[in-house]
Amino acid sequence: MSAPNGQIPPESAGNKAAGAEPIRMRTLVLLRWVAIGGQLSAVIAAWAMGLEFARVPVLALIAAACAVNTWLWLNPPRRVSPHRAVAQLAFDLVQISALIAMTGGMSNPFALLILAPVTVAATSLNARQTVAMGAATMVMISLVAVLAVPLHDAHGDQLKLAPILTLGHWFALVIGVAFFAGYAHRVTAEVAATSNALFATQMALAREQRLQHLGGVVAAAAHEMGTPLATIKLIAGELANELRDRPELRDDALALRESADRCAGILRSMGQAGKDDLLLHAAPLRAVLEDAAAPHAERGPLLQIIAEGPSIRRDPAIIHALRNLIQNAVDFARSRVVIEAEISGSHLSVTIRDDGPGYPPALLQRIGDPYLTSRRGGAQRKGYEGMGLGLFIAKTLLERSGARVGFANGGPGAIVTVRWPLSRIIADQRGALGDNPMQSV
């Protein structure tokens, strides 16, 4: 069991799917209006303090941002492609850099705002585009440091940092680009991966519930189809009796009656299975484990179930989760998988052991995280299509049912332990009513 059951999609989990909008234009426009408001406030405050700077070019840059934003507000594009988002963020980067260069450069206390575009890029664009924006930001920071126009106070004295402080400020901003962009991109990727994995979990659970309730639909269909099939059979029989002097038509009527009998038999068996499945909300512990292990019984390794105990809740989520754990064990077992259940005190424990190579020690503490590893061309056995994200889905579903899940290695192979409080797993002893007892007359 050298790796958890999970597959990585073609793109990294943090990246947007192909064709999806990385960020809405409305969001970019609103952020830019906030930036423009802050820029105007800073200009007015500096003006009120008597600071001397190139007011006309500064106001022209702010007016340019207003014009671009107004045009986008009135003529929003139908969709924002990654390239369009990069272009908008690049415009913001150049505009902010030019403003800072015209208002003191590294001595401007608002120089930190030059990191805003690359931070937005890190949360919405892929790694390559984020790196490109980061490199462009570092270039602009360097140009601002070299080409900065110094500020002057009301007395005409130049406001300028010492060279060592200017260099330190430049280093701080460059380091900030790498840190903020890298941190924001990593967090966004992990949040996206977890969201995608939770969505996959919900889809898997919904699929199991649909399969369980399908039996009820089949039972209802069998009930509703019974009457018309009986009518068809009756009419076909009467036609056969009436057509004794016309053998060719009589044979057709008899074939129709036989087909109706066959359909009735099929629906009867399906309906009985559907009723059994719909009513079976509780089952013996061993039966639940056998149900979970059934898809993997013929896949190679010997499956041994050691379980004796009371009836437990036959929850589709629990069965699906145990099935994923058993699948992972079968995928990496050499010859044998043991599924053992034990009740001790007020808890029920189910342990799944295999004789494979075990979990990689470096990943042991992270098993159950979404998209932990890929399984390309690896150990998955033929005969079963992996569902991906198996351990994450299993762990999530089991924890929702009140269980605690542990992963370990041990002599040899991997061990998964699932432990429930009895109050969360034992079935209600009140069962469905059975058949009425036969009475003698």
UniProtKB/TrEMBL annotation:
SMART domains, A to Z: HATPase_c, HisKA
Which reactions does this protein catalyse? ATP + protein L-histidine = ADP + protein N-phospho-L-histidine
Which residue windows are transmembrane per the record? 30-50, 56-74, 134-152, 164-184
Primary location class: membrane
Q: Which InterPro entries match?
A: HATPase_C_sf, HATPase_dom, His_kinase_dom, HisK_dim/P_dom, HisK_dim/P_sf, RegB, Sig_transdc_His_kin-like_C, TCS_sensor_his_kinase
The record's subcellular locations are: Membrane
Q: Which UniProt keywords apply?
A: Kinase, Membrane, Phosphoprotein, Transferase, Transmembrane, Transmembrane helix
SUPFAM superfamilies (alphabetical)? ATPase domain of HSP90 chaperone/DNA topoisomerase II/histidine kinase, Homodimeric domain of signal transducing histidine kinase
Q: Which domain of life is it from?
A: Bacteria
Q: Which residues form the Histidine kinase domain?
A: 220-424
Write one Gene Ontology MF term: kinase activity
Give the EC number(s) under which this enzyme is classified.
2.7.13.3
Concerning Gene3D superfamilies, the annotation shows: 1.10.287.130, Histidine kinase-like ATPase, C-terminal domain
What is the protein name given in its UniProt record? Answer: histidine kinase
